[in-house]
UniProtKB/TrEMBL annotation:
Protein name, entry field: SIS domain-containing protein
Stretches assigned to the SIS domain: 36-217
UniProt source species: Roseburia amylophila
InterPro entries the record matches: GmhA/DiaA, SIS_dom, SIS_dom_sf, SIS_GmhA/DiaA_subfam
Pfam families: SIS_2
CDD domains in UniProt: SIS_GmhA
Amino acid sequence: MRHLEKKLGKHIDLLIQRYPVLELCRQDIIDGYLVMEEAYENNHKLLIAGNGGSAADSEHIAGELMKRFKTPRKVSAEFAKKLCEVDSERGPSLAENLECGLMAIPLVAHEALTTAYINDVDGLGVFAQQLFGYGREGDVFLGISTSGNSKNIISATVVARALGIKIVGLTGAKGGELASVSDVVVKVPETETYMIQELHLPVYHCWCLMLEEHFFG
């Protein structure tokens, strides 16, 4: 059983200090983080989906993971050297400015693919199709749904389970169907959509901070 590194506990403590209502979710937030940490340690990736405001959250999370959140993430000296060998003019600038990322794919961001699938095949299977194409055993699917019952998210979880992809659910107090099919679910203690979304952001920011400190701190 994996445990949270002691040095990462400060992020959870600060989160709860700033948002005391999330004390109810403390262990679930930790467990969700540990699922992601394990995937990244084994060279896997995070796939993220949601609708509306949760679609925006999906892109937000990917943006925080694919480049620095707070801590600089310089490329290795070995890779910097290769860049300079490949192109002596551009290589030094790239070596200085490129940042290491944790691979995260927001399934909401591929307009040509998603609109083609919605138009040609099935609107509710759009995330399932992408998960089937991008996902590999050992990856993690982060499904964000304030109700926990978004049909396209639930369809994606079916594909995730069939592929051996772990599911982290981020939802509201009721949990919905997403709570019953997730390996870990964080049910923030609100039932109004916008209030749920207001608590989702600090939760995933905390995850991003902990992942960055673990891998790049």
